[in-house]
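Reviewers of the previous submission asked for a worked example of the structure-prediction workflow described in the proposal, so we include one complete record here. The input consisted solely of the amino acid sequence. No template or homolog information was supplied to the procedure at any stage.
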Amino acid sequence: MGLKISAGILLYRERAGELEVLLAHPGGPYYAHKDAGDWSIPKGEPANSDLDLEAVARREFAEETGHSVGPDPLISLGTVVQLNGKTVYAWAARGDLDPDSAHSNNFELEWPPRSGRRQSFPEIDKVAWFTTAAARIKLKAAQISLLERLEALLDSGQDGN
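From that input alone, the workflow returned the following structure tokens.
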């Protein structure tokens, strides 16, 4: 597949009158000590035959959090292009989720490098709720505009609620 794409969901809720979003921290040894600028919306790549990117976003959210977003329509947030050239298609959904109950699927990696040993790591090692101010610090730079689009839609009353 020449073009690198992924699809994901930005889950949001309101707590004490303040907007909060659920972000995911990547698992594995490369991200073990990284924080600011490395969190993401839960997302993933489509299989070769996946053309319904909204369905991919729903599947990936479930795989990376252990929870579904439910059947309600999602709010399109458009796309962003990350530094690695990957295009991220994103949607938003109102919901709630206990971060302590979240669990991710795993991936295998040769670790330590060139050791010949393969180890299993969670794709996402944790999820957490952040205010929009904190999310701007945690999110990958390219994904901050997804947060801004969500705020604009909610401010204009276009979230369907």
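The mean pLDDT is 92. We consider this example representative of the routine output the project will generate in years two and three.
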